[in-house]
C-alpha cells in the first residue's frame, strides 16, 4: 500500500489537477479571512472550504491514471487496493492543505469571540478547528468518491453532483459538515469552544461505507 500511495501522490503532484483546488482554497481564505478576525469564525471558513477542496482532489485522484496504466496497477495490486490508494491520496492531500491553513489561521486570527471582548483560548480553538476541518475533509472525500471512477464516469454529471452535493453538505442541517461548522459559528457568538465529536463519528462511519462501496465497485470493473 505504501508504494501505491507514493505512486498516486506522484501522479497528483505531476498532474494539472492539483493546482485549481489548492488555489480555490487559498482564494476563499484570502477573501473570507483577515489577520485579527475572530478565531472561531475564521476556522469555520477554513473548515467549510475544505469540503469542496477534498471533493475536487479526490475526484482528481480517481482520474489521474490513463486507462492502460490503471489496468496495470489493478492487475499488480488488485483493483480494490488501487482504488483505496486513490481515495486515501485525495483525502491526505486535502487534509494536509486544510490542516496547514487551519494552523496558520489560528496563529494569525484574534484570540477573541465575535464581540471582540470575550477571550477565546487558541489551543482549544485550534483543536476544534482541526476536528471540524477533518469532518469536512472526510465528507468531501466521500462525495468525491461518489463522483469519481468507477462510480461515475461522465464529467458533466460528476461536476453537477459535486457542486450540488457540496452545497447540500454545507447547508443541510442533518449534514455532519454543517453541524461541525455550525459549532464553530456558535462558539464565535458566545465565546465557548465546542468540539464537534458527534459529527466526526457520523462522518467517519459514512465515509468508511462509501469507501468500501467504491472499492467493491472497482473490483467488479467499470
UniProtKB/TrEMBL annotation:
Record keywords, A-Z: Membrane, Transmembrane, Transmembrane helix
Transmembrane segments: 82-111, 123-146, 158-177, 197-215
Recorded superkingdom: Bacteria
Keyword Membrane belongs to the record: yes
Protein name from the UniProt record: ABC transporter
Organism of this sequence: Streptomyces sedi
Lineage: Bacteria, Bacillati, Actinomycetota, Actinomycetes, Kitasatosporales
